Amino acid sequence: MHxxxxxxxxxxxxxxxxxxxxxxSLHQREVxxxxxxxxxxxxxxxxxxxxxxxxxxxxxxxxIEKKVGFPVRAHMLRHTYGTYTLSALRKSxxxxxxxxxxxxxxxxHSDVQTTAIYLHLINQLDAQIVLAHEDEMxxxxxxxxxxxxxxxxR
Length: 154
What we know:
Layout: H1 15-26, H2 28-36, H3 54-68, H4 74-91, H5 99-107, H6 112-140, H7 146-152
Helix pairs in contact: 4-5, 4-6, 5-6
C-alpha cells in the first residue's frame, strides 16, 4: 500500500464494522484468497482473490461520481473522516481528550495547524445549518403569517 511519506496512520473503527470485517476475513476473504492461490497482504480482495489495484479504486470512485454528479475521490473520505470525527468529539459529553489533538494523531499530521483546517470546515457546516434554518423561518412567516395560520388549521 502506498503511504504518504512512508508514514502509517491509524483510524478508529466502530466495533460493529470490526465484527463485520472479522466475519468477512474468516469467510468471504478466505474463499476469494483460495481462488487466486496466493497469500495477499490486503484485507479486502477482488472476486478473483487479488488485491485491488489503485486503478480499480479510481474506477470505483468514477462510477460513484457519475451517480452523484460531482467529483468524488478516495482521498475525500479521509477529509470526511477528519471533519466529522472532530465535529462529533467537540460535541461529545463523554470524550476526555482534546479533539483537535486526537484527530491530528489519527490523521498523521505533524502539525496541529494542518488539522485545524477541519475546524474551518465545521464552522462552515454549522453556518450552513443556521442559514438553512433562517431560510425556513423566513418562508414560514412570509406573507404576513399566512403559513402559520395555515399550519394552525391542520
